[in-house]
Amino acid sequence: MKSSVEFFFDFLSPYGYLAATQIDDLAGRYDRDVVWRPFLVGVTVMNIMGMKPLKETPLKSDYLTIDRPRMAEIFGVPLVIPDLTNTNSLAASRAYYWQRETDPGRAKELAKRIFHRLWVEGRDITGADAVAEEGEARPGSTATRCARRSGITG
Questions:
Q1: For 12, which DSSP code?
Q2: Closest to 13 (Cα-Cα) out of 73, 82, 76, 104
Q3: pLDDT above 90 (res 4)
Q4: What pLDDT is recorded for position 1?
Q5: Cα gap 83→123, rounded to integer Å
Q6: Residue 39 pairs with which residues in a beta bridge?
Q7: How confident is the model over 26-44, as pLDDT tens digits?
Q8: Could you give phi then psi for residue 37, rounded to 5 degrees?
Q9: CB of 126 closer than 8 Å to CB of 154
Q10: Whole-angstrom Cα distance, residue 41 to residue 72?
């Protein structure tokens, strides 16, 4: 058996969303499984490494306005650019990992629904209720129960 592909992403990244629409098919062509691993870019890259968000970086921010829709078109997927002010992915990431402990397949489906909510519907994913709504699309979701019980607010 070949080793798995580890897919690290932040739900707040449009490139994470775009990659999520392609990663399983791409890995499947090479007979590999994908292990999805959400993480918080804001904490990891920006706070620890001191880098600015792309949208605050000269030239890169201009390029993003061209590149994101272009990539969505190439991949044949919908993409809206939501207002991410005061949005974070902590609850979504926690719910994903809770669900993965009992059912990795459901966790991956939850992640895809969370991406869809934000990058296709343009709806917030910050709070426990938002994440639980996506978990409720699959009855019995561990993520839904844990999100509601924990009172995660983001």
A1: T
A2: 82
A3: yes
A4: 58
A5: 9
A6: none
A7: 999 999 999 999 999 877 7
A8: -140, 90
A9: yes
A10: 21
Query: Around Cβ 151, how many Cβ atoms within 10 Å?
Result: 9
Single-letter amino acid code for the residue at 145? R
pLDDT-derived band at 154 (thresholds 50, 70, 90) equals: very low
Which two structure tokens, joined as six digits, stand for 56?
């605050």
DSSP 137: T
Specify the amino acid at residue 134. E
Per-residue pLDDT of 86-114, as tens digits, reads: 999 999 999 999 999 999 999 999 999 99
Query: Is residue 111 exposed (0-12), middle (13-18) or buried (19+ Cβ within 10 Å)?
Result: buried
Half-sphere exposure in the Cβ direction for 95 (13 Å, CA): 39
User: What pLDDT sits at residue 54?
Assistant: 72
Does the predicted TM-score (pTM) go above 0.70? yes
Taking the C-alpha atoms of residue 45 and residue 85, their distance in angstroms, rounded to an integer, is 18
Q: Which of 78, 79, 94 is nearest to 135 (CA)?
A: 94
The letter for the amino acid at 152 is I
